[in-house]
Every structure is written in C-alpha cells, then in structure tokens.
Design a protein that fits this description.
CATH class of the largest domain: Alpha Beta
Number of domains: 2
Helix content: 25-40%
Number of strands: 13
Strand order of the largest sheet: 8-10-7-11-9-12-13
Distance between the termini: 45 Å
Structural class: alpha+beta
CATH architecture of the largest domain: Alpha-Beta Complex
Bound molecules: adenosine-5'-diphosphate, magnesium ion
Order of helices and strands: HEEEHEHEEEHHHEHEHHEHEEE
Shape: globular
C-alpha cells in the first residue's frame, strides 16, 4: 500500500491508531477540526515546538523512521523537562515528499508512540501536506507546571553549584560515527550511537529538581554545554566556572576519544544534543538534593562547576590552569 493509494485521509486514519494514550479529559482527539481536552486549574500551560528539516537536521537515508519519530518527540519533551513540567499532549505536522514510503511514515509514528506511551503523552492532532523534496516534521508539545515550581533560565545566583543530570559529549560522538559512516563494532560505539539517535528526555529528573525548591535556573543541553550554559549566564546576569576534572565523561566516550584521537572535554563542552538538564543549585541545599536524586534514579547528579560574578565563562583545566571559554555549539546561522 502506498500513500498515493490511501490518500491523506487514509493516512491520517492509519497513523491515528495508538495516538490516544491517556483518554481521561480528552473530548476530541485526532479526527475533528481541532482537539478538545481539559486542562488543570491553577497549573501553567507550557507549549514548545521544534521543526526538523531533512538535510538540515537529519539524513533520511541514515535514519529509520522509528528513530526519527522518537527523537522528534524527545527533543520537545526535553524542553518541557527543562521547565520543570510534565509533558501532556503532542501535535505533529508533516510535509511528505513523493519518494517517502508509507512504511517509513508508519515507522515514524511507531517511534513517536513508543516514547509517548513511556511518558503517557497523547498525540492529539497535526497537519499533513506534500513537500517538493525534503521531509519536514514539526512537533508541538504541551505540558503542565506548578506556577511555584517553574524552572527558568534566569535566576542563577553567584555561588550556586552547576549540575548536569547526565554525561556530556556522547551524542556528538554518535553523530561523528553517523557522518563518517563508521561501523558500530563495539558496545561502546553502540552506546554513543544510541545516545545520539534515541536520547532519553529527563522529564522525571526535571520534576524532581523543580519540586526540590532549590534549583534557581535550568536549561536542557541541546546546542552544547558551553552554549546552553551561556544562555543561563546571559538570562541570569552571572558568570560560570566549569571544572574539567568534574566533567561527566562516559566510559564509552573515553574509549571513542582514545581510539579516534579526540579530547573528551572538548566533546563535553561543545558537543550538542545531549538532552541532559543543566541546572544551577543553591549551594547549601546541594547535599540534600544530590541524595534525593540518587535515591530516585540510582545515579548521581553531576556537579560540574559553579556560578560566579565574573560575567565570563571559565574552565579549570585538568592541570588546574584557568582558561576563558567562549560558548561554542550549534548555531544555525553562525557557523565557524
Ligand atoms: P483540517 O483540514 O480541518 O485542518 P485535517 O484534515 O487536516 O483537518 O485533519 C483531520 C484531523 O487529523 C485533525 O484532527 C488533525 O489534527 C489530524 N491530523 C492531520 N494530520 C495529522 C498528522 N500528521 N498527525 C496527527 N494528526 C493529524
Ligand atoms: Mg488541516
């Protein structure tokens, strides 16, 4: 069966199966002119969106539909996580070129539904159109947050401990494997590949941080640590000092870097798409929050530096020397 045979409405009918995961409170899902569902009084509504364009964000030949769908949703969940919210609804619009097989699109929705069910998010609508050449996917995700627990980029205070919820640089290494068509010949390379294509959004982690009451600022690491920390610095009007020795580098990245001759610290600083949360924690509460975090997730919340009043971003190198760093990472319009 092809897209031409089933048509737009046959397609919508097909992909809509399995999209309603949490029916309570939903008045109309996919199939009417607009979705209708109940919100929760006293809760803030969060809305985020991400646009994925073939050849800019992904290569269709280099990805499965499943992985693409999973990631398209995951990056939006990550934004909700960084606000301290719960993800609730998703809306998916796609521009489909003639040469994109129906199987690829069904696989794409399977990937989205897989992640959506993991976090009980409903896919409640979208739009479908043709495209001349490239596959285009736009995802909108809504979420809810308690107004007193909202995490913003602003609010970081001098003396705060800067933390990451996970390892940094793995995704960039995975991308290197894909772009250079390097065969996945070890469990380490597999882990790096997976970190790039199937990033796990830190929604539960974000909720714990938000509820703790002692996280002053947060952002998700999408463009790269130095770039995203730069956003917190700018929004909060502070500086930051990172410590190379404390950088959470996975054993997989160590193996990769020694094999291919890269510096893991550089990967951690400038690699993007880790989708960990970066947060600024009140120093006095740091012990309590790391303990809570370890109890809940059985892994550490990594302290990687502190907020300073210098206005600059600095790195304490492994030999203890201090060097200034300029935010580096992904910027669509400013390429080095
Ligand atoms: P309209 O023309 O009134 O905008 P559509 O025919 O585009 O309606 O859409 C019909 C229903 O299918 C709507 O509920 C819409 O949200 C949903 N829908 C359309 N395309 C998609 C898609 N790619 N993914 C999920 N839902 C979709
Ligand atoms: Mg429409």
């Amino acid at each position: 069966m092809s897209l031409k045979e089933i048509g737009e409405f046959g397609f919508i009918d097909k992909i809509s199966r399995g999209c309603l995961i949490r029916p309570e409170g939903v008045v109309t899902a996919i199939g009417d002119d607009a979705a209708a569902f109940h919100g929760k009084a006293e809760q803030l509504l969060l809305v985020t969106t991400d646009l994925l364009v073939e050849r800019v964000h992904f290569l269709r030949q280099a990805t499965s539909g499943f992985n693409l769908g999973y990631k398209a949703l995951a990056v939006n969940f990550s934004d909700i996580a960084a606000m301290g919210g719960n993800a609730r609804e998703a809306f998916v619009s796609i521009g489909i070129p003639d040469d994109c097989p129906l199987e690829f699109l069904e696989d794409l929705y399977r990937g989205m539904q897989h992640l959506a069910s993991e976090f009980t998010v409903n896919i409640l609508g979208g739009d479908t159109t043709g495209s001349k050449q490239d596959l285009i996917i736009n995802v909108v995700v809504t979420g809810m947050a308690d107004p007193s627990e909202l995490l913003l980029r602003s609010g970081a205070q001098v003396g705060d401990i800067i933390c990451s919820t996970g390892c940094l640089g793995d995704s960039r290494a995975g991308l290197h494997l894909i772009l250079n068509t390097i065969g996945i010949d070890s469990p380490e390379l597999r882990a790096l590949f997976d970190a790039h294509v199937l990033p796990k959004p830190c929604l539960q982690e974000g909720r714990l941080l938000a509820a703790s009451g002692c996280v002053h600022a947060a952002i998700d690491v999408s463009d790269g640590l130095s770039s995203d920390l730069g956003h917190i610095m700018q929004a909060s009007g502070v500086g930051a000092r990172l410590v190379a020795k404390q950088m959470p580098i996975s054993p997989h990245l160590q193996v990769f870097c020694s094999r291919f001759g890269f510096d893991p610290i550089e990967f951690a600083l400038a690699g993007g798409e880790d989708y960990t949360l970066l947060c600024s924690v009140e120093r006095k509460q740091f012990g309590r929050i790391t303990e809570e975090y370890r109890k809940a997730f059985d892994r550490p919340l990594y302290p990687i530096g502190e907020i300073t009043d210098t206005g600059r971003m600095e790195l304490v190198e492994t030999d203890s020397r201090l060097r200034d760093i300029t935010p580096a990472g992904w910027d669509h319009f400013k390429r080095k």
